[in-house]
Amino acid sequence: MNTSAMQLTLLTIAEPNRFNIVELLKKGPRSVSDIVQALNIGQPQVSRHLRIMSDAGLVYVERKAQQRIYSLEAQPFQELDAWFDSFSRLWEDRLDKLDDLLSEIKREEQE
Amino acid sequence: MNTSAMQLTLLTIAEPNRFNIVELLKKGPRSVSDIVQALNIGQPQVSRHLRIMSDAGLVYVERKAQQRIYSLEAQPFQELDAWFDSFSRLWEDRLDKLDDLLSEIKREEQE
DNA sequence: TTAATATATACGTTGACATGTATATACGTT
DNA sequence: AACGTATATACATGTCAACGTATATATTAA
After folding, report:
1. Which residue minimizes Cα–C1' distance to D18?
2. Which of B19, B48, B86, B89 is the most buried (most CB within 10 A)?
């Protein structure tokens, strides 16, 4: 599990505007001006955020005349998805412990 | 889906030291001095990071004499887990499109 | 070539946050 | 009570990153 790549992804999408860009791009590819319109931030800021996301490997670009169409890269999100899956032990273990506790109580009642 | 809560969680665990604290606490509860030893940062810094994580609802504390034992809260990680699951469409759709493409090619070959 | 549209970059300013040092608080032991 | 250990907080400092404004680059159209 490549934690430093995940940290970069986390750091990148933790910024509120970029988080919103991710939410938007999840619905499908969008041009810069699409994003400017959808979220309420200036064009240079959007370009800058997209640059940062691109550097982090979270998006890729396609040219269409003067427009740049941005899409989400799947891999980094898959990685984080897998990482968060590994947390499931956190709550499953608790349920197991609860089960153990309940069994123990039952046993005590029967004695 | 509570995006503002998720953003807070992301922002909190994106910081490298706190990310490492999460990785450590995933293995089980730890005292402050445990964490100080495991990661290589000063005690006040660890306390401060734990304070921030606590404010964000990511950890809870139990007292044991002078020690404070920190554990991960399950819920915020469950939320992010669910959110990242929603990205699966991202790559599944692509596979679907690939399937479509392959079917089309086959059809063309048969004509 | 000139103009128009779409996007990217440069730069100065500002605010937020992480760090280190010092100190306060909490709890236990003698 | 006095001391030691464990943890939390206060404060000054430095760094980084986001923002706004201005401008550069790219692409198409006239």
Report:
1. A45
2. B19
